[in-house]
Amino acid sequence: MTDEVTARIRALDVDPLAPLDPPAGLDLSTTWHIPAGPVTQTVHDRTENEINAARMNAGLLVTVEDIARETTVVTVACPACGDTDRLALVGSWGSPADLSCGCGYLWRPYPDSPRWGIRVMMDAITKAVENRPDL
């Protein structure tokens, strides 16, 4: 279930509110380890958001560049060793995705967004099954 060629996940567009049915015949108790390689995370900068809100409330111009500074895309690194390339999604259908590193460290990268993490795991499993129907 960890075939790197067919189960590789580079970027997931996740809609945590959309329903998703499991692939037909999927064993829901299986714990999956799906190689992900580098994982990115969008980080929201509350300070930049507050500055833009204050500028708008004061009637000042807020440009597209100002708004763009409110978010930054960063590469997730293992908290234990700092590696960004040997990451895998770990979990089962309906559970939040954990990340594991090649060094053996396991963590939940989005503890404040369990619904998002659940959907990431379901999307990754669905993509793995679509790419390898024999799983």
Low-confidence stretches: 1-12
Q: Could you describe the largest sheet, including whether it forms a barrel? A: 4 strands, antiparallel
String of helices and strands: HEEHHEEEEH
How would you classify the quaternary structure?
Answer: single chain
* Count of individual beta strands: 6
Our measurement of the CA-to-CA distance between the termini, rounded to an integer number of angstroms, reads 7 Å
**What portion of the residues fall into strands of 2 or more residues?**
15-25%
Structural class: alpha+beta
Average residue pLDDT = 82
Keywords:
single chain; about 140 residues; alpha+beta; 4-stranded antiparallel beta sheet; two-stranded antiparallel ribbon; 4 helices; about 30% helix; elongated; disordered N terminus
Can you characterise this structure?
- It is a single chain.
- This protein is α+β, with helices and mostly antiparallel strands.
- The protein is 29% helix and 19% strand.
- It is built from 4 helices and 6 strands, in the order H-E-E-H-H-E-E-E-E-H.
- The protein has helices at residues 4-7, 46-57, 64-68, 114-131; strands spanning 32-35, 40-44, 71-75, 87-91, 98-101, 106-107.
- The strands form 2 sheets. Strands 1-4-5-6 form a 4-stranded antiparallel sheet. A two-stranded antiparallel sheet has the order 2-3.
- A hairpin with a 4-residue loop joins strand 5 (98-101) and strand 6.
- The longest helix has 18 residues, at 114-131.
- The chain is elongated and about 60 Å long.
- The termini are close together.
